[in-house]
Design goal:
single chain, 467 residues, alpha/beta, 2 domains, 7-stranded mixed β-sheet, 5-stranded parallel β-sheet, 23 strands, binds flavin-adenine dinucleotide
Length: 467
C-alpha cells in the first residue's frame, strides 16, 4: 500500500496537469488540509557584496520572498568600476583583489583571469635616490632589520591602547626603509597607523601583510557581479535609501527616504558601519524604533571607518623596473600598483590608495589637478624627473564623499575590545540581522571575502528561525 506521501509523489508525476494543491486536497480529509506555507519576506538593505550574497542564498532556498533595497543607482557598494577613465580604461576604484585563494571571492575572480602579487612580488623601491629591485632590497641590511624586527606583528598581544605607529616606533626600524612598512600596514588596516590598535588589528587586517593577492585582470568587477548574482538582480530596488526601521511589532516596518513603507518578517542590514554610526541629525542616518541595544551602539563606537581616496594615474613612460607590480617611494602617497601597461600606445596606468588622516586632512580639499601636481612634486623629489615628466593625468575617487559609504573599511580603534565585532554582528529580537565586512568575526573584516562570509552566517540564522 502506498503511503500518503508516495501517493502524492506518484500522482504529481502521473498527472502533471493536475495542480499539487488539488491533489493535496483530494488526498486529505478536511481536518488534515495543509495550506502551502506562505513564503517569509526578507528585506535586505544594501546591495554591496554581502547584501547580494545574502539575497542569493535566501533566494536559492525558495522559501523566502526577497527584496534588496539599495540607496545608490548601482550594485556592488565598495566594489566599484569606473568606466572610460582617461577616455578608454575601465579601472577598479574600490576593491580590486582577493586576499588568498581559499575563498569565494577568489573563485569569482578566477573566472575573470587574475594575476597574483604579494610582498615578495617584483617591485621597485626608491630609496634616497636609488632604485632597487626586491632582490636588491633583500640584501639591504636596513631592510633585513625591518623584516626581522617586525616578524611578530601579526601575533602582537600587548595593550589595546598601543597604536600601530607606536609599535613601529618601538622597533627602531632604520628611517631609510620605514616608509615601506608604514605603507604596507596602512593599506591593510584602512587608516593611519596612529589611529589603530596594534593588538586588536594584529590577527585581523595586519595578518594579511604577506597574503597572496589576486587582482582582477581580464574581466571587470561589474561582469563578475552580474554573472554571479544575475538571478537576484530583478529583486534589487535601486535609489531606495532606507531612513527608518521600526521593529516594535511582529513585522519589521522599513521606510525609505521617499516615505515608502515596506513590511518584512526579517530585515538584514548590510550597510557600512559608518552609516550605522551616524547620529539621528546627520544626513543619511537610519532611525531605529526602538533604539538599537546600548551594547551594539557601544560596539559600533569602538570600530573606526576612516577616509579613503583612490587615485588612478596615467603615465606615458615606464620608469619602474621591467616586471614590477608595485612601486614604493617616500612621500605622502607612497605606494602604487601597476594595473595596466600598453607600450604600443605609450600608456601606463597605476593606482594608489591613501587612507586615514592624510586623506581626510589634505587630499579631500584638493582638486584632481592639485593632486596631480602633488604626485609630480613627490616623484620629482623621490624618484626623479623620468617619473615626474611622465605623468599625464589622474582620476580620483573619494570614498568618504560617497553618501552611503563614507569611508574605507572597518578597523579596531585604540582602546577597543576583541569581542566588539561579535556584538556588532548580533541579531536584535530575531528580526534584525547584521551582515557586512565590519561584522566578520572570523578575522576577515575589511575584505570582500570577509563580507561574503557574514552573509552565510546571517542566512543560517534566518533559515533556522524559518523552519
Ligand atoms: C578603496 C578600497 C579598496 C579596497 N580594496 C580591497 C581589496 O582589494 N580586496 C578586498 O578584499 N577588500 C578591499 N576593500 C574592502 C572591500 O571593498 C569591502 O570590505 C567590501 O566590499 C564591503 O562589502 P559590504 O557588503 O560589507 O559593504 P558595501 O560594499 O559598502 O555595501 C553596502 C551597501 O549599502 C548601501 N547603503 C548604505 N546605506 C544605505 C541605506 N540607508 N539604504 C539602502 N542602502 C544603503 C550602500 O550604497 C552599499 O551599496 C577595499 C575597500 C576600499 C574602499
Amino acid at each position: 500500500m502506498q503511503t500518503r506521501r508516495q501517493f502524492i509523489k506518484t500522482a504529481a508525476l502521473a498527472l502533471p496537469a493536475m495542480s499539487l494543491a488539488s491533489i493535496l486536497l483530494s488526498s486529505c480529509s478536511k481536518s488534515e488540509i495543509i495550506a502551502p506555507k506562505k513564503k517569509l519576506k526578507v528585506g535586505i538593505i544594501g546591495a554591496g557584496i554581502s547584501g547580494l550574497e545574502t539575497a542569493k542564498i535566501l533566494f536559492d532556498q525558495k522559501q523566502f520572498e526577497i527584496e534588496l533595497l539599495e540607496a545608490s543607482d548601482n550594485i556592488g557598494g565598495r566594489i566599484n568600476l569606473s568606466e572610460s577613465v582617461f577616455g578608454s580604461y575601465n579601472i577598479e576604484m574600490g576593491a580590486d583583489s582577493s586576499y588568498g585563494d581559499q575563498n569565494k571571492w577568489y573563485n569569482m575572480l578566477r573566472t575573470a583571469q587574475t594575476f597574483e602579487t604579494n610582498s615578495k612580488s617584483p617591485s621597485s623601491f626608491y630609496l634616497n635616490g636609488s632604485a632597487l629591485t626586491l632582490n636588491e632590497l633583500n640584501k639591504d641590511s636596513d631592510y633585513l632589520k625591518l623584516l626581522n624586527s617586525t616578524q611578530d606583528i601579526s601575533a602582537y598581544s600587548g595593550s589595546n591602547e598601543v597604536s600601530v605607529a607606536q609599535y613601529i616606533e618601538s622597533k627602531n626600524i632604520p628611517e631609510r626603509v620605514k616608509f615601506i612598512f608604514e605603507n604596507r600596514t596602512e593599506e591593510k588596516i584602512g587608516t593611519s597607523i596612529e589611529r589603530a590598535s596594534i593588538a586588536l588589528n594584529s590577527s585581523e587586517s595586519l595578518s594579511k601583510i604577506d597574503a597572496n593577492m589576486f587582482h582582477i585582470s581580464g574581466n571587470n568587477s561589474q561582469d563578475i557581479l552580474y554573472r554571479e548574482y544575475g538571478s537576484i538582480l530583478p529583486y534589487v530596488k535601486n535609489n531606495t535609501a532606507i531612513s527608518s526601521i521600526d521593529y516594535t511589532g511582529s513585522k519589521v516596518k522599513v521606510r525609505d527616504q521617499n516615505q515608502v513603507l515596506r513590511e518584512y518578517d526579517f530585515v538584514v542590514l548590510t550597510v557600512p558601519v559608518s552609516i550605522l554610526k551616524l547620529q539621528s541629525n546627520e544626513i543619511n542616518s537610519i532611525q531605529f524604533s526602538p533604539s538599537l541595544p546600548e551594547s551594539k551602539i557601544a560596539a559600533m563606537n569602538k570600530i573606526g571607518m576612516d577616509g579613503a581616496v583612490k587615485i588612478a594615474i596615467k603615465t606615458n613612460r615606464k620608469f619602474w623596473h621591467e616586471d614590477s607590480k608595485s612601486i614604493y617611494t617616500k612621500g605622502k602617497i607612497g605606494k602604487y600598483e601597476v594595473v595596466s601597461e600598453d607600450p604600443a600606445n605609450n600608456s601606463y596606468i597605476l593606482t594608489a590608495t591613501v587612507m586615514g588622516a592624510y586623506a581626510e586632512n589634505e587630499l579631500y580639499s584638493m582638486r584632481e589637478s592639485e593632486i596631480m601636481t602633488l604626485i609630480q612634486n613627490e616623484w620629482a623629489m623621490y624618484i626623479g624627473t623620468s617619473a615626474s615628466d611622465s605623468l599625464v593625468s589622474c582620476h580620483v575617487k573619494n570614498w568618504s564623499k560617497e553618501p552611503f559609504i563614507k569611508g574605507a573599511f572597518s578597523y579596531h580603534k585604540l582602546g577597543g575590545e576583541a569581542e566588539t565585532r561579535k556584538e556588532l554582528a548580533k541579531s536584535v529580537n530575531s528580526k534584525i540581522f547584521f551582515a557586512g565586512e565590519a561584522c566578520n568575526t572570523n578575522k576577515n573584516s575589511g575584505t570582500v571575502h570577509g563580507a561574503i562570509e557574514t552573509a552565510s552566517v546571517v542566512c543560517k540564522e534566518i533559515i533556522a528561525l524559518a523552519v
